[in-house]
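Q: What would this chain look like folded?
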Amino acid sequence: MSKENRKASSGMLQRLSYNVERLRRGLSVGALGEACGLSKGHVSKLKNDQANVSLATLEALTAGFDCDVLDLFHRIPPQRPPIADDER
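A: My prediction, written as structure tokens:
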């Protein structure tokens, strides 16, 4: 895999990780795994950007979240720099 492809792949995994966290709405990792039919360990790896993802996993996540696959790859909003105390 080329350096550019690895970087793109990593970016997609980061988006997935961010959106799994965003969409889980307070569910524990175990409860989310149960809702999606995935193991707690696999969900934890997804959440922490440490797992490669298969189409079957994407299907399980969309079923568990009741969302479209595009929702799993929604753009990560840019981080805002913290506001200094003297700027408040």
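The longest helix spans residues 3-23.
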